[in-house]
Design a protein that fits this description.
By secondary structure, the chain is of the alpha/beta class. It has three domains: 4-68, no CATH class; 82-118, no CATH class; 126-259. Helix content is 40%, strand content 14%. It contains nine helices and six strands. The protein has helices spanning 4-7, 30-43, 58-61, 72-75, 82-102, 108-118, 125-141, 185-202, 238-248; strands at 145-151, 164-167, 173-178, 206-211, 215-222, 255-259. The strands form two sheets. A four-stranded mixed beta sheet has the order 5-4-3-6, with helices on both faces. A hairpin with a 3-residue loop joins strand 4 and strand 5 (215-222). Helix 5 (82-102) packs across helix 6 (108-118). The chain is elongated.
């Protein structure tokens, strides 16, 4: 890409290059002249009223020039905001794809850009869920603490002093399952599968809340997916289930998973 600082130089300093245009001697390498050209461009004061010939501004090279009014949202002047630019890109991409269906004159790079912009991103939700769940479980299971429920394994060395043992808790997970009418039978089966997988990975029970616009059946302590009772089938408000998990589930969950 063309250097904006070089493009801002006067016309007589562009085109065929000669060292005398910069006031330099012959015989130096190109990097020496390049640094001198940038220095000349930086030393030259910019007049906002004068637009240098050949410099199209930040719309061409991304460098804000002195005569530009700036971001419409910051300066208050009328212009195209970032949100408007996204709409323009979407409109152009759709026009390119429509034109490419009937005409073979659209450049392949344009078509690839339009398809990439209009194609929804493919999110591997199961891998994303597993990584976040591992992080939350490892964070909770790593918090060892002292407990007097069992004597210390070094108690014989302390004689009359009762020392606590170190305990590593099993993380307590609460799953909020969406049981609203918008959940199909296949998606409800996914919920059961997630419950089963988390129970197997923990080797312990977990709390399950069947939630649509309210929590139905209270807290279900389950150890496998088939044991879950999916009640509800009304509206959808997962915030109700999250609030219920934080206030009515005991002990307080270390990790909350929302399946919706």
């Amino acid at each position: 890409p063309k250097d904006p600082a070089i493009m801002a130089l006067p016309e007589e300093m562009r085109g065929p290059f000669y060292p005398w245009k910069l006031g330099c001697e012959d015989g130096h390498v190109w990097e020496h002249y390049y640094r001198q050209m940038r220095q000349n461009a930086e030393d030259k004061p910019e007049d906002p009223a004068i637009v240098t010939e050949g410099d199209c501004g930040s719309g061409a090279h991304g460098v804000t020039r002195a005569w530009e009014l700036g971001d419409p949202e910051a300066s208050g002047v009328e212009g195209v905001t970032d949100a408007d630019w996204e709409d323009v890109k979407d409109i152009v991409a759709r026009a390119i794809t429509e034109h490419a269906k009937t005409h073979g004159t659209v450049p392949g790079g344009w078509v690839e850009w339009a398809n990439a912009l209009l194609t929804p991103p493919l999110i591997q939700w199961d891998q994303l869920l597993a990584s976040h769940l591992r992080w939350g479980i490892n964070d909770a299971s790593g918090m060892v603490y002292h407990s007097y429920q069992r004597p210390s394994r070094r108690q014989s060395a302390y004689r009359d002093f009762v020392m606590p043992a170190m305990r590593r808790p099993i993380p307590f997970v609460c799953i909020i399952g969406d049981t609203s009418y918008s959940m199909s039978l296949s998606r409800l089966a996914y919920v059961r599968g997630i419950v089963r997988d988390i129970c197997q990975s923990l080797g312990a029970k977990l709390a399950f809340l069947a939630t649509d616009a309210a929590v139905h059946g209270g807290v279900q302590m389950v150890h496998d997916g088939p044991n879950v009772e999916l009640r509800g089938r009304g509206g959808t408000n997962m915030c109700v289930g999250i609030d219920y998990a934080l206030t009515n589930v005991y002990p307080k969950p270390d990790v909350i998973v929302v399946c919706t």
